[in-house]
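hey so i finally got around to running the thing on that chain from the lab meeting. sorry it took forever, my laptop kept dying and i had to restart like 3 times. anyway pasting the input first so we r on the same page abt which one it is
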Amino acid sequence: MSVHPVKRGSHSTCNNKLFLLFRIGEERYALDALEIAEILPRLQLKPIAHAPHWVAGVFAHRGTMIPVVDLSALTFGQPARVRTSTRLVLVKYRVDAQRPAQLLGLILEQATDTLRCAPGEFKAYGLDNPEARYLGPVREDESGLLQWIGVQDLLSDAVRALLYPLPTDAGEEQ
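ok and heres what got predicted. didnt touch it at all, straight out
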């Protein structure tokens, strides 16, 4: 994994954030490293019947079932390509204010580089896309545009309810 340095003369490094860089097709994206719990190789998943096509499945990790979203399928309708650089990235996802953050798996292509830069270098791109609220601001550099993905905005209410159902009381009869 390589780190892209901040250019000399750019913003102070004390306010910089670390981002994991990845691609969806030829497009570049970034995740705030503080939202990442762990980076794993791509693993075998159990499919979830009747889930949206971009819900890749679930897997057991340290005694917990983790739902997994294929970010390429979510964004552009095509599943992530199987590459040695395709990763399963576990992010901290807050289902709601009453519950602690849960793990959500993301399948990300070419997730091998990082970037340290000031969050203010990302600028709004001028579109209101209610179907893809997770697509955040963009940053321009010598490689083109880089878009910040907002983890908390990835799931719709319906998918959130499917992947993270409200716990039922153990004593409650069915």
